Amino acid sequence: MTLLWARGQPRWVAFVRIIAAVALALAAFFIVRGAALAADPNGADTISADPDAGVNFVWTLTSGALVFFMQAGFALLGAGLIRAKNTVNYLTKNILDFAAAGLSFWAFGYAFMFGGSGLQPGLDQGNAVIGLSGFFLAGDAYDVSTVSFWFFQMVFAATTATIVAGAVAERTKVTAYLAYGFIVTAIVYPIYGHWMWGGGWLGGEQLQSLVGASAVDFAGSGVVHTVGGMLALAGAATVGARLGKYGPNGEVRTIRGHNMVYVVIGMFILFFGWFGFNGGSTTAGNDLRIGIIIANTFLAGATGAVVAAYVGLVRTGRISAAQSSNGALAGLVGITAPCAFVAPWAAVVIGAIAAGLMLVSVHVIEHRLRIDDPVGASSVHGTAGVWGLLSVGIFADGTYGISGFIAGNGSQFVAQLIAAIVAVAWALTMGFVLFNALKLTMGLRASREDELSGMDEPEHGESTYADDEPPVDDVEVNGVPAAEMQ
Amino acid sequence: MTLLWARGQPRWVAFVRIIAAVALALAAFFIVRGAALAADPNGADTISADPDAGVNFVWTLTSGALVFFMQAGFALLGAGLIRAKNTVNYLTKNILDFAAAGLSFWAFGYAFMFGGSGLQPGLDQGNAVIGLSGFFLAGDAYDVSTVSFWFFQMVFAATTATIVAGAVAERTKVTAYLAYGFIVTAIVYPIYGHWMWGGGWLGGEQLQSLVGASAVDFAGSGVVHTVGGMLALAGAATVGARLGKYGPNGEVRTIRGHNMVYVVIGMFILFFGWFGFNGGSTTAGNDLRIGIIIANTFLAGATGAVVAAYVGLVRTGRISAAQSSNGALAGLVGITAPCAFVAPWAAVVIGAIAAGLMLVSVHVIEHRLRIDDPVGASSVHGTAGVWGLLSVGIFADGTYGISGFIAGNGSQFVAQLIAAIVAVAWALTMGFVLFNALKLTMGLRASREDELSGMDEPEHGESTYADDEPPVDDVEVNGVPAAEMQ
Amino acid sequence: MTLLWARGQPRWVAFVRIIAAVALALAAFFIVRGAALAADPNGADTISADPDAGVNFVWTLTSGALVFFMQAGFALLGAGLIRAKNTVNYLTKNILDFAAAGLSFWAFGYAFMFGGSGLQPGLDQGNAVIGLSGFFLAGDAYDVSTVSFWFFQMVFAATTATIVAGAVAERTKVTAYLAYGFIVTAIVYPIYGHWMWGGGWLGGEQLQSLVGASAVDFAGSGVVHTVGGMLALAGAATVGARLGKYGPNGEVRTIRGHNMVYVVIGMFILFFGWFGFNGGSTTAGNDLRIGIIIANTFLAGATGAVVAAYVGLVRTGRISAAQSSNGALAGLVGITAPCAFVAPWAAVVIGAIAAGLMLVSVHVIEHRLRIDDPVGASSVHGTAGVWGLLSVGIFADGTYGISGFIAGNGSQFVAQLIAAIVAVAWALTMGFVLFNALKLTMGLRASREDELSGMDEPEHGESTYADDEPPVDDVEVNGVPAAEMQ
Asked: Distance from C470 to chain A by nearest Cα, in Å?
């Protein structure tokens, strides 16, 4: 029984074993307790109460599938921006962070995030700080609405986890990364998410009574991107720069990745998925504002690409495809919070500013803070995410419930500012705590030899571009040519 | 008229010509006969009878498009797992098997599979063994419901055909493969499909009266994956191992593929498409169980990835990205039959077991049976598919019409077991008959020289990574520089 | 303020500055004027007037997202068919033509195309030649229906722009290409589009009264593909052949691209997106004809692939994956205009003929016209697009409002023929004017040195496959190892 009991194995085995044991025990408890319960597991009651519910389910689930597909975009984008020798390592993290994120969000994260929100059946217990029901989708949470909403929220949690992979790429051990992914989606992400979306104090009446407005974050510039980007920054700072990134006299070196086709296609996949990310956040196809949300999403991304390209052209006389791609992504991150609340012209402005801030941020992080973020995740998601939160307070025009400066309301900006400060503080703090804890226990950084040779063979026994050619044997065994033996 | 009449051409020309002549004659017959007929070709009657039909059409067609996109996933996954020298050959098979599958399923397969089911207009003739109406979508089958349903079913047929491509890769002639693809989707796949889904004896009252339950296969663990996987096994066994796979002393050699990025992105595309595969199988967006189906699909795939990764980590100290990807796919195959009938926790268990069985199966097929399946298709689809069928009989909880062991019903498991045995027996038998028939007539295996040099140039005149650099001529012709002549 | 004011910069800076200044001034005007106006920006009135509107929005927006994703398909297909040394250049054009297209279609194109159509709120001013309202989606055009329709139409405009990128690849300067993209989607595309779809003379009563039928183009064989293909032809002719394409004695040389995997996956992505392209063109999920549209789309594409493969097999004994892919695309282009009006058997015939015509066209353009189109865009989109327009007049069977020859109506064919002639004449004329204007002002063709060395480094400072390995320094700075400095 090697799987359950083995001697002399490294620390990650203990970690996995503890997590698995706790999860199984809790699962057994909740599943047994909930066996007789279930709100509406086949949907008959739900659709008879709301005959139009089908459109909303179709929209939410299709959108969730698109958000899932963003995993392929992150995988390609990152793989292209790093070196071939570490690509299997990066890809493995991509596979396992969405998978582990999905499982930990099923077991714990969803309950911590949405318990007490009352948004769906089985999510009734919780307070302004943390949610406490919906574990394992058991009991009353075994309901078509609750589970559909879980799927849509889970792909957001997985996105947050994945944002970090690029920032710590090319020198972080895969086992440490997996522990990180599980904890972030079980605890770190859900708690801020609860504050904003799950009935907590930022999006609820507490902040309203404090500053006159609750914070809003339509599709997650803050919840997903600021949190993910700040965790990425903390991770990159803690694990340290790649060998050779900074020279002996402090010079900053560019380390170009190994495949620009991957980068651009990765960007296109992310852009495509973003329509689900923002559009699906109504969780209702019958909310026709989805048309404006999706158009705004496009406009901000397109503008971000053009601005980043043009800035590069003016400054260097050349247009960088990688920078243009990051410009598009920054525009998309920026519009994620305000997409539902602003007019198309404002989406263009928001996307342009997001791309500009991203470019400044990349420079500051790389040259001033001297933190090595190989894909620019901290800037694309973190910095543009903060801007996205703030932009709601400026450009929300009141046509969809929220008013910012241009509609004559100043208190919304204050609420957005607080939400942004809290997101940065929470994610940076938790990120430094978590990554330093992993550094001290499991170890975070690959050995110098592995980093120099590439992490693919030592950590994975695979090479991205192996293309083996085995010897071809002309001998026979028992009269059958060896090569045709079956 | 080379296309229709040529001397001295090889056997595949005769094959294609016969198929085409038969198809054209039948098409003319059915189209002429059906010219005056058509049930509801513009949908006006259908939507006036059911004003909510639009949601169901949108869901089914969107899902079908996602399943189509799985072709890109299979293409990438397989291309990555094989060597560069045979990649054009593999890709060509991918293009042409879906295309030929689509045409043969339009002409014959759909009628054999769903004739007599009465599921849609124009599908009224057939018996418990085979269907006999709906050929060429002509006559009453020229109806919005019938044609939409055809599209969704056709992409399933094409998936089945494609599963085999990886198992026989790197040594099978493209012309033989095309003949295989046409016949499988015209006859082999539709007949088992008829038994299960088209009003035949497995899914109908015959098995019900025999063992107390009809077999169910919600989205095709059996119909698509077991059948496809067993055809793959028969194909790989018949065509024989790649040169060099087994050494002179019987040792098994690993032949690593040429691009792990393709492998992982291929897996992500397949995972994405699977939401359509399983979710769309309600063919109704108004059936809200789709939420639980899609969440279960995700959970099983994620668990499969984690389990395969963890087993590798414990056994070798390393995590294989390829093995993790196959783990995800095995989990997805396993949940395909039960996805609608089980609770989320059961999806986790089903995915975990599917991944474990897949790993065992890969070892047994490669080392014990000594069959060379370069991508593991037999195990991922065949073995996990059998498990998927069986798991319905264990975990179906009665919330969606079907009850298994955990809901106190044993007869469902018996029905599932029979369905699994029949699927394996039918597909293996037909697979061996078909591939051996091709071996004896058209020839199945590439020549030794082509296999050693790679099949791309000899069979396709193309090279995956050519990147030509022609000579640049500085001369002029008639006063115009050669390079600028237009 | 380098961004706004700089000396000694090249002509493109002036171009961009002028465009930006005009756009900003107009935007300010329309936005300020429209600030108090808005038809239904949150959709409440729209859905209360039509409670089923949600299904239509979901269908249109999902389809639009799929069409957007075709950008990734074009990027991969083209990247694969060209050489590695120019791939960043090609990808950059892909990023920026969709982005610039989106912005220019937001500012100008949509208003020129649909103003006066009255199809949505805010589109009321225009005549038979050009539309004149809807600029910047401001005023009454800030409406959920108008903006959703904009999104769907905008991705079509972006597709048209992108078609040209492949035809002029490997020798066209990126700045000239960007100017082209902006102008085409602001003016050239929208004007023909207005004539056909926006209330203009081809699709309206003017042609009806002239020849007895208005022209129809369901999803854009003419509006998108013929126009795009003819612009591509004009561009390729104007910029001239790649160095080395034609030899000193006039011989035609094949220049094979650098990655066939990209080509095939690009084709699959395009095929996938085409379901949105054609299916979404109902802009209504409640129009159940979508089922037949999507099935026809598939059948034509599949048949095109099979026909192109088979023709190659008969002629050369080999099957080209690239040619099969282009066959699928030609079939898809061909079915784009007639997809809603014909029966499945006719889709098969249309796809087969489209592939055949494409093959002939590729030969004629390359060998007779001696125009170098590296990806065959002129033939795949232009020639097959013309056939698509004509095929409506032949195969429309009267079940969906339009009747062609087979339904006993000859006047439809005349209308289609006129539409095709107009499309070719308009796009070729505008294409030659535009590309020659760029040639004379900004310069169109890369320098000989850049073309020989590849355009990636000189124009973009990037290399597709860089994979840098910086020196690793073992020194320390202030006691901290250089490589770990942060």
From this structure: 6
User: What are residue A445's DSSP bridge partners?
Assistant: A172
Name the band, by pLDDT with cuts 50, 70 and 90, for residue C153. very high
Q: Which chain C residue shows the shortest CA-CA distance from B51?
A: C286
* A3 band by pLDDT with thresholds 50, 70 and 90: very low
Yes or no, beta carbons of C328 and B95 under 8 Å apart = yes
Q: What is the pLDDT of residue B2?
A: 42
Q: Could you identify the residue written with the tokens 């801007």?
A: A387
Nearest to B140 by CA among B272, B35, B226, B4: B35
Are C82 and C99 spatial neighbours (Cβ–Cβ below 8 Å)? no
Helix residue spans in B396-485 (DSSP H): 411-441, 448-453, 456-460
Q: What is the pLDDT of residues B234-254, one digit of tens each?
A: 999 999 999 999 998 889 999
Nearest CA to C264 out of C313, C321, C331, C329 is that of C321
Q: Please, is B401 exposed, middle or buried when counting C-beta atoms within 10 Å of its C-beta (0-12, 13-18, 19+)?
A: exposed
Distance to chain C for A82, nearest Cα, Å: 7
Locate C109 and state its tokens. Answer: 């194109």
Mean pLDDT taken over chain B: 92
Q: Residue C58 and residue C284: Cα distance in Å, rounded?
A: 9
Quick one: pLDDT at residue B479?
52
How many Å lie between the alpha carbon of A112 and the closest alpha carbon of chain C?
31
Residue B5: pLDDT above 50? no
Which residue of A264, A315, A345 is in closest CB contact with C31? A345
Nearest CA in chain B to C257: B467
What number is the ipTM of this complex? 0.94
Amino acid at A45: D
State the virtual CA torsion across C303, C304, C309, C314 in degrees, nearest 10: 80
Angle CA B301–B307–B312, to nearest 5: 130
Instruction: For the beta carbon of residue B425, count every other beta carbon within 10 angstroms.
Output: 11
Look up tokens 């058509």; give the residue: B38
To which H or E segment does residue C356 belong? helix C344-363
| B274 neighbors B295 (Cβ within 8 angstroms) | no
pLDDT at residue B486 is higher than 70: no
3 state DSSP class of A2:
coil
Statement: residue A142 has pLDDT above 90: yes
pLDDT digits (tens, 9 = 90+) for B397-425: 999 999 999 999 999 999 999 999 999 99
Tokens matching residue A66: 């698109």
Q: How far apart are CA A416 and CA A405, in angstroms?
A: 12
Cβ atoms < 10 Å from Cβ of B317: 13
Chain B and chain C share a number of CB contacts under 8 A equal to: 254
Q: Do C100 and A295 touch (CB under 8 A)?
A: no
Model confidence at A285: pLDDT above 80: yes
- For the entire predicted model, the pTM comes to 0.95
CB-nearest partner of C464 from A62, A261, A305? A261
User: Smallest Cα–Cα separation from A303: which of A292, A311, A315, A293?
Assistant: A311
Cα C377 from Cα C254, distance rounded (Å)? 16
Task: Please say if the pLDDT value at position A132 is more than 60.
Answer: yes
Tell me if B142 sits within 8 A of B38, measured CB to CB: yes
- Write the pLDDT tens digit of every residue in C170-229: 999 999 999 999 999 999 999 999 999 999 999 999 999 999 999 999 999 999 999 999
Per the CB < 8 A criterion, the answer to whether C297 and C278 are in contact is yes
Q: Do B59 and A64 touch (CB under 8 A)?
A: no
For residues C126 and A310, give the distance between their C-alpha atoms in angstroms, rounded to a whole number.
Answer: 34
Q: What is the SS3 assignment for B356?
A: helix
Which parts of C379-479 are beta strand (E)? 476-477
**Residue entry with tokens 């509006």:** C223
Determine the Cα angle at B233 with ends B232 and B238, to 5°.
Answer: 100
